[in-house]
Amino acid sequence: MEYIIREAGLKDYSSLKPLHKEVHDIHAEARPDKYKRTEETLDKTYYDELVSSSDSKVYIVEDQGEIAGFTILKKTWPPKWDIKVQAPVVFMHDLGVKDSYRRRGIARLLFEKAVEFTKECGAVSLELGVWEFNQSAIDFYEKMGMTTQARKMEIKID
After folding, report:
1. Domain 4-143: which topology?
2. Among 35, 83, 100, 143, which is most buried by a count of CB atoms within 10 Å?
3. Has this prediction a pTM greater than 0.90?
4. Which of 67, 73, 75, 56 is nearest to 21 (CA)?
5. Cα 53 from Cα 20, distance rounded (Å)
6. Domain residues of the chain, as ranges?
7. Whole-number Å distance between alpha carbons of 60 and 27
8. pLDDT tens for residues 90-133?
9. Distance linking the first and last C-alpha atoms of the chain
10. Is the separation of the CB atoms in 142 and 105 below 8 Å?
11. What count of Cα atoms within 13 Å lies in the side-chain half-sphere of residue 151?
């Protein structure tokens, strides 16, 4: 199967929204204490800023005009503190593949595109956050060569 991977534009917003919601719903189901169930999961103003900025990219994978996967990337800098090394990183805010397209190499295409963007914009690393419940995502990222940098922990207070 020949997929097309390309940079998303303003016109792709409406087509991307259902897949963004599909990915959001997975998180809302697993962590209802953190994610609300809602119909609108991708803010239009936020999306427009992402696709208009040189420091961020939204890539989509298409199959015969249908969006099968996407990733949202943003170049960031650490706080300007004397104790922090001032080197930019790219943060992957989202990576999602439509359920009917999983296990077909689409996430790999998007991840490779993210690495390419990271190199092109002069960042020193590609970083992301992944929930502990999402073992398949953790396994995928480890397969792509990622390692755990830090761990965020919680204790729920009743």
Report:
1. Aminopeptidase (3.40.630)
2. 35
3. yes
4. 67
5. 20
6. 4-143
7. 20
8. 999 999 999 999 999 999 999 999 999 999 999 999 999 999 99
9. 50
10. no
11. 4
- Give the type of residue at 3: Y
Q: Which one, of 37, 36, 33, lies nearest residue 154 by Cα?
A: 33
3-state secondary structure the chain: CCCEEEECCHHHHHHHHHHHHHHHHHHHHHCCCCCCCCCCCCCHHHHHHHHHCCCEEEEEEEECCEEEEEEEEEEECCCCCCCCCCCCEEEEEEEEECHHHCCCCHHHHHHHHHHHHHHHCCCCCEEECCCCCCHHHHHHHHHCCCCCCCCCCCCCCC
Please check whether residue 68 is in contact with residue 101, taking contact to mean a CB–CB distance below 8 angstroms.
yes
Query: Residue written as tokens 């040189």?
Result: 54
| pLDDT of amino acid 1 | 63
Tokens of 50: 């992402």
Amino acid at 72: I
- Token pair for residue 55? 């420091």
Instruction: Over range 72-92, report the average pLDDT.
Output: 93
> CA dist 33 to 97, 116, 124, 156, Å?
24, 35, 34, 10
